[in-house]
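Re: the pair you flagged

First of the two:
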Amino acid sequence: MMNNNIPDLDPLETQEWLEALDSVLENEGTERAHFLITQLVDQARLAGADLPISETTPYVNTIPLDKEARSSGIHELEHRICALMRWNAMALVMNANRESSELGGHISSFASAAKLYDVGFNHFFHGKTETHGGDLVYFQGHSSPGVYARAFLEGRISEEQMYKFRQEVDGGGLSSYPHPWLMPDFWQFPTVSMGLGPLMAIYQARFMTYLQHRDLVNTKGRKVWAFLGDGETDEPESLGAISMAGREKLDNLIFVVNCNLQRLDGPVRGNGKIIQELEGVFRGAGWNVIKVIWGGNWERLIAKDKDGLLLKRMEEVVDGEYQTYKAKDGAYVRKYFFGKYPELLEMVADMSDDEIWHLNRGGHDVHKVYAAYAAAVKHVGQPTVILAKTVKGYGMGASGEAQNPTHQLKKMDENSLRHFRDRFNIPITDEQIPHLPFCRPAEDSQEMKYLRQRMSEMGTMPMRKPVAEPLSVPELSAFDALLKSTDEREISTTMAFVRMLGILVKDKNIGKRVVPIVPDESRTFGMEGMFRQLGIFSQVGQLYTPQDADQLMFYKEDKSGQILQEGINEAGGMADWIAAATSYANHGKAMIPFFIYYSMFGFQRIGDLAWAAGDMRSRGFLMGGTAGRTTLNGEGLQHQDGHSHIQASLIPNCVSYDPTFSYELAVIIHDGMHRMYAEQEDVFYYITLMNENYTHPAMPKGVEAGILKGMYLLSEAAKPKGKTKTPHVQLMGSGTILREVIAAAELLKQDFGVTSDVWSVTSFNELRREGMDCERWNMLHPEAPRRSSYVEQCLLQRSGPVIAATDYMKAYADQIRPYIAARYKVLGTDGFGRSDTRKKLRHFFEVDRFYVVVAALKSLADEGAVSAKEVSKAIKLYNINPDKPNPVTV
């Protein structure tokens, strides 16, 4: 077709060129034509012509009819099986809403994608078998009813379960969406938080190449499939990493975008074409793009379109109109689509309105979908995206086909149900329709025999098969260097972690399973020493001489590199971590990932992925570096973390700690490895690390259990001689602020004669969880002896008020207030961060040693143990301005 933006100054010459091209196409094929066109473009560019080439192709199917691979399946049986899936998926949602309208559900999403899934199940999705490692399929969350419907036909889900969709509390129900935590033997990936499925799929595909290159798991022949809607591509995560997939040439990755042209509330690109837009985006990112736009019923008309007028009409109609066509009827399509040009009206003059109505879209044509999938799995050197045009609510008729509110529909009226039954030839009588029975053929039926044959050949999908593989975790003594005093040497907990990581990667049993992951700034975390030792994973190795090649710790990329470095990309690093942390379930190989990042850019930035990690039963370590509001002192507001531990507490299976000393860190990581990799417990750890250097003492005897429970007595004041009663307090601290608390204990003794017990609190979160568990038990066992929380047990027989100070918001330490019988005062770093020295920042946020002293004296004064004048004395002595602005509001 002519480019309407450029005038044709010599039509005769143009015709000669086009005829020459037609001759090449006819006699030498498309590849030769493509080569010649490329040569012409290159020659023109060499001559100085600016010739940007469009990244989009005509609005027709990518695979021409004569190049389509044909399925050997029995299409009539596949059609009947798919029809039963449609009915049962619809009945699943409607029956649940008869139980209660609160339950909700979605009919229309699977209705539009049924063929896309059916073809995959029958011919392309490989379950794990003796001969195949199993494909990984990220099912679109809203299509879960269809996946349940397939599993019901297969006999993997009972009819009783089908009647308990979204009814899980009493057991035996089916979860609303893909949730491995709720259905640990069925679902592999949580995908309904839109955008996460595509993102995780990309990094999963790359992680499979990592396992292959490192000779850990044979992943050859396995594919990663990600199903998403065209509306979902508006989520930044959906497209945010596609350039990485193109750059890495991940030909084990296939995206299937269900282009039903509709968001949750209406058209995706009502004024444009989402398929064309996505084609340009993916093709520009280096993907192989396959468009499946028109079904087989269009072929006769396309063949008659010798002058390109039909193609022109297809190009000029926008998606909003295409959606409207499918909400109307054949007469409407005749008038408003074909009716614009008399030649097109003539083209369909011999067709009835009903025939025009049945001009189908490619995503509903089994042959077109099969051809696209077959081409995708064979394609080498690029990831593939299939853009399949469908109709949202396909088959729902007047109840919701292609209508704007269709996504929210949970019900269909009886007339629509009859229409649905007749359209898909479901063997249900008029009398049965109001009861919405589930339909499964007899075991000796042709349909069930065929289904069993397909299951035997392809395996079962989805199915989650964790491998129970207890690993031999080194003893705590292996980290003896971290349990000893550093003497006069000052180090950070980040440095202590890197030391521990260095020990782990050398361990003969688990060293190769350790996966260090960094988004960037490995040097900030002191990890550059691992570059040469372990290498940074790259499928192509290192194609250049690094700038620092002459240095001991040069930057080394390697095909078998152990480190995954994602650049300035926390979401990518987290997706890496999730793939590694679930490898025990998806690849039969337990890996031990350590993802270290700026803690401020952890849960705050990738909190949705962290929640998904919990759902997926991930096992591994998240290391929040440069943690705390005042430890990263020079970076200012947006870099200073005073809340990540509060965010960590929101995820039920996330175990979190804020250690101060290297021995605490060693005990915590060792325990985590034991719980996750020896005991196979489905938890993951969040541990904060600081970049502040100080000396570390040797581990006191017998503190291991307290470290893990969340607190232990670090130092105890000497008991006064005779009958002298000395004012006494309990001081608690964590992370770097514990050192301020230790200093405060010295000031209290030195300047005011107040003695202190000092507690290292490694986790207020874990203390709270244990305390709540005791509270619940006591409430439900009112006549049994009362259980005491661990905090209560620690403080039993301890006198004086309790003061806690952390580098986090007051809410963090305030969590354990219900378990402290004494007066409890919390200091924290509420408010925005700012840049200055650590000393000034801690004074500004009122968590330094001087404010700890004032808080302790004020608590004692409130109890009458000291005079209020002592508090005023301290305020004056330490140059505290009582009228300075509140840091929360400054």
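Second of the two:
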Amino acid sequence: MPQAATQPVPFSPVTAPLRLHFLPLLFAALCFAAGIVGVHFFWFSPALLLIGISLSGVLCLLAAHMAQRISLLPLAVLFLLLGSFCAEAASWPAPQAQLTQLADGTPHMIEGRVIRTGPLRRVESSLPFSDRVHEEQSMQLQVRITSADMLRLAGGISLGIYAPLEADFPRIACGDQVQANVTMRQPDRYLDQGVWNERAYMLDEGIGALGSVKLSAFKVISAASHASLTCRLHSIQQEASLRLIAFAERQSTKLPSFFRLDREDATMLTAMLTGDRSYLSRGIRTGFERTGSFHLLVVSGMHLAIFAGIIFFLAKTFRLPRVIATLATILLSLGYALFTGFGHPVQRSLWMITLFLIGRLLWRDRSSLNAIGFAALGLLAVNPRVLFEAGFQMTLLSVLAITGIAAPVAEKTFAPYLAALRDLWMLRVDPKLPPRVAQFRVSLRLVVEHARFLLGRHAANSVPFLVRLILRATELLLVSVVVELAMSLPMALYFHRITAVALPVNLLVVPLLGILLPSAILTLVAVLLVPVVAFVPAAVTAALLHLALWTIHLFSDSMTGDLRIATPSAIAVAVWMAGIALAIWIIRQRRFAISIALASLASAAIVVMLPHSIHYRPGALEVTTIDVGQGDALLVVTPEGKTLLVDAGGLAVASPESKFDIGEDVVSQLLWTRGIRRLDAVAVTHAHADHIGGMPAVLINFRPRELWIGRNPDSPAYDRLLRETKTLGIKIQQHVAGDAFRFGSADIRVLSPSPEYMPKSAPANDDSLVLRVSYGQTSALLEGDAEAPSERGMLALGNLHSDLLKVGHHGSKTSTTPEFLRAVAPEYAAISVGRHNYYGHPKMETLNKLEDAHVRTWRTDLLGASTFYLDGRSVTTAAWDEAPTQ
């Protein structure tokens, strides 16, 4: 028998029961995180916290010497207080108040230094109510402002420079001093529950305002004397992306398309290799998001982990000492992280990998959970606010699920047999192994011996390889299942998506990614250093990428596994946390451990996915004006919880390349936060973009039972909406003035358009479907964009009095005529309008009319989403940040 020349690797012992005494850093990290969470809800004086820390430290020392059995209690208090103190002492981004005052939509002369450059790109844009597409070239910069309007000022601005296609753009480099007459505005912030706060995110990035300027009003006043390291790294990253895209665009067409990179492939590779997502279209992102595999497309913790894993594997293959292998992996991972732009997610992943490897080096294989605690504690001590970031939570949870659940399950089942395949022909290893594992080795050797007579020597020798392949596939399946189940809560909280196809997609694509990433890195290196031979690795990369894309599109196009869900309830979150903790604890017990652990994990995921009742106020009709900027969207909830959405907003300025969808990113987020999984009905008042732009995403996400329309002319956007409605099997109901029907316990009366109304050739404001919704003695009149002609028609119908008026056409002077306002005589008025909009809405003339009529007026640009409760006798109100009662 052939003998292996290497010494056998000692077999890992069975997972020991979970004891906090043996996991001090995991225990400390949990207490530290609990302290951060406490400060998030309650304020504590830092001085009192310091006193408490000192007293707890003394108690810990006393307990260590006199009462070790209760030493965990003062230790828990110590780290709890340390977490609270770090959270209270952590610095917050500067508010940049001076710059915010200048971001008012008017031009200001600014000077500053370029701290980040972007590529010169060709962009398309169109204005609302226009099908004409305008093309120009643009460059995006980040500028650290030193003065504005000749006054000293400090702040950061994201500056877009625009010029005609034929204009010559000057060369702009990091460190250049520039001057420009800039129109600035604050980053968008939609004041709705559950909607992402872009303004806070930009402030965290050092950006206090967004600006735009024509090239003719921009100039470089002095060349760069020096540039920051981050800017240089970004320039290198950008140059690498552009060269890879250029290489793909000029590739020979002689190669079959399967082995040839095109521009779209190159944009995906730039996101995957350099972290540059700016070239990704929304169409590419959607396919990956639907299959729960977007993390495979962009530089993420998985990419860095794969890269570090490859380095660590090579270090072990070349038999480098443990310390040297760990150091080499950390340093090369740092280099790759720097190359990808060293963004916050990459930094977090790098620190997680670094601290985990150091913890593994210190504790070896005795406690991976302790290494995770070490990594988490280090990250939280540096930046406590990272605890509330989705990326940190998902990265930590993935590692915890693999180490805390998947690894023990494998260790109790197939992992010993996988380890036993090493040095299979070294007979002296057998006596040192457990009997069942030793018997497996003996049996496998016998199978190989007998197979040689039937299959030949070479075929028989492949039997151990096939067994190893099956066990590795089992390992990948186990890890994928455990991670997908553990990620159910963050996927529901942050993405409102449970993707059943994520498991098969990851099973098929992750192994491909393990081969694709090294191949893509080799391709990029060849493109940068030896372009003439780059076509060879590029062909391999293209084949692997197209195979992965085929898999993703296969599942994405089916749409069978893409389930959008509402925000889980607090009870569901608590049950999920208990289920995860039970799984981690029980798997380390002896009897029925695997079955109970996996059942607990699956139950936790199911609880998150189960529907729960929506948030509403029983006994009251709710009308909520949603803040969608310059547009309209209203949510109506009946006293028993039936839901109606009237319009879904839209972008004020639309761009085909925009990654923002107001229906997905604003309206849907609010509805999910309210616990809504399906709408009973949606209504489209008319076909203007600021009313129906977000509706396609709403239809797909919430599959309403009915779509209510008035009389609208054909238009490309409206026709697409109707086609999508029919595709989804949604019933279309057309309504005209005179229609009246019940919606739950509410009565709905249609006031416009009249049965004789004939729309013009293009969408118009007077197409608006106007509804009067009443409950008991209270009612709300929802006017859409109806103008004076429609209001005269409604006056002829009579009985218009309503407690709440949704003011027509965003408060324009063409609506809310004095006669109409007298007939409605509302107590409250709501105006849906965007901040600093192009049209100057609401007009002062309309506001004066409302004030003279003593109507209390609520505006979405100032107050955000505003909720009105009509209980049948009176009307009460709630601000945007006051959650409706259950």
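Residues 523 and 536 are 8 Å apart (CA to CA).

-B.
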